[in-house]
Design brief:
- This protein has 2 domains: about 1-135, OB fold (Dihydrolipoamide Acetyltransferase, E2P) (Beta Barrel), CATH 2.40.50; about 155-330, Calycin beta-barrel core domain (Lipocalin, Beta Barrel), CATH 2.40.128.20.
- Strand 16 (about 275-280) and strand 17 form a beta hairpin.
- It is about 10% helix and about 35% strand.
- The longest helix is centred in the first third of the chain and has 10 residues, at about 1-10.
- The protein has helices spanning about 1-10, 75-80, 165-170, 180-190, 205-210, 345; strands at about 15, 35-45, 50-60, 65-70, 90-100, 105-115, 120, 125-130, 130-135, 155-160, 215-220, 225-230, 235-240, 255-260, 265-270, 275-280, 285, 290-300, 305-315, 320-330.
- The protein is globular, with a radius of gyration of 21 Å.
- It contains 6 helices and 20 strands.
- With about 350 residues, the protein is mainly beta.
Length: about 350
């Protein structure tokens, strides 16, 4: 078995240096380094916010060490051919990924894994094979089961070309973000272990929109209802309101009113946030009830893509508004139901960090 796996490794895909992100911060991982671990699969948990595995590696002295392997979300992995029963405990596997910057932390962000029977499972559509970069086209194309959206309805998945990736998995970049003294003070004490995601505490907008999860949009005459794969909170964009009501119940997703401009783009104004939201602006920076968000959504690629521009204001933490851009691609419709957050999975990697 070992020789077979080693042969497969030599001909298999070499890890891509582009980081695979999750809902936690990733400043503590080395994306310039790659490792491969062969061993027995001793733990497999299929849950949001990530699928986790543990692999027990046998050392030369016959002692063992356990490595934590962090994958993507269940929905994202399903699109790459994974299933809840894809792996069996006790089987021998080989995993490839980016390691923690601290050698003592046996923790890997997974790129791909080779099962005992030789089948390879990837978590990304970008990879390398025999030294050549291979990319599965991410641009959505229409098909019988994936029709273009004409009114913003559909299942949308975040695209790779999304500036928010670095902004929301690492602390704000000083040359792009103009923080107030309070914002600077919070950022100075940044620690990944303080991430509210470890406790399944949601951050709301803007992370609600830009997280690595799928969304369901349903358009009605007076509103657009949004359901997120990860969040337990639905969101509604009201299309029949000229102004926000005076009695808004504060929510981490705020109160959204939208209208369409001359080119058909959807412009959304969002207010009504709580007083304090942990990391409600970016990793390490909270938000206040003065936060206001202006979004612009535009259908592109004949209705197979959705582009977004988001401007965030919060005078308590931001001296100047910050504008971020993102992109989604339409995927075949399915009954998307929120998976919620599994506390064991959310905090799993803390036990492997020193």
């Amino acid at each position: 078995m070992k020789n077979k796996l080693l042969t497969l490794i030599l001909g298999a895909l070499i890890i891509n240096t582009v980081p695979v992100m999750s809902h936690h911060g990733r400043a503590n991982f080395s994306y310039d380094d790659t490792v491969s671990i062969e061993g027995e699969l001793t733990y497999f948990r299929w849950a949001n916010p990530h699928v986790y595995m543990e692999v027990q590696k046998t050392l030369k002295n016959n002692e063992t060490e356990t490595w934590l392997i962090e994958g993507g979300t269940p929905t994202a992995l399903k699109k790459m051919g994974w299933a809840k029963n894809s792996f069996k405990l006790g089987e021998n596997v080989v995993v490839f990924g980016n390691p923690s910057k601290k050698a003592e932390n046996k923790h890997i962000i997974l790129d791909h894994i080779i099962r005992e029977d030789g089948e390879i499972f990837y978590i990304s559509s970008t990879y390398r094979t025999k030294g050549t970069v291979k990319v599965i086209p991410e641009k959505s194309t229409a098909s019988q089961d994936n029709l273009p959206s004409k009114d913003f309805s559909g299942i949308w998945t975040r695209g790779r070309k999304n500036r928010i990736t670095s902004d929301y998995f690492f602390p704000p970049e000083p040359d792009r973000w103009s923080l107030t003294d309070r914002g600077e003070q919070e950022l100075a004490s940044f620690a990944d272990r303080d991430n509210p995601g470890y406790e399944c505490i949601e951050r709301g907008l803007p992370f609600y929109t830009f997280g690595p999860y799928s969304f369901s949009w349903k358009r009605y005459e007076d509103r657009i209802d949004i359901v997120a794969e990860y969040s337990t909170l639905p969101r509604t964009i009201y299309l029949n309101q000229d102004a926000h009501p005076d009695d808004i119940e504060p929510s981490i997703v705020g109160h959204s009113i939208g209208h369409f401009d001359e080119d058909g783009s959807l412009i959304v104004d969002v207010i009504g946030f709580p007083v304090d939201v942990k990391w409600g602006i970016a990793p390490g920076v909270d938000s206040s009830n003065q936060k206001r968000i202006i979004e612009r959504y535009a259908l592109v690629n004949g209705g197979m893509g959705l582009e977004i521009t988001m401007t965030i204001e919060d005078p308590v933490y931001l001296k100047e508004p910050i504008t971020l851009n993102g992109a989604y691609r339409k995927t075949p419709d399915f009954d998307l139901k929120p998976h919620g957050c599994d506390l064991e999975a959310a905090s799993k990697d803390l036990s492997f960090e020193n």
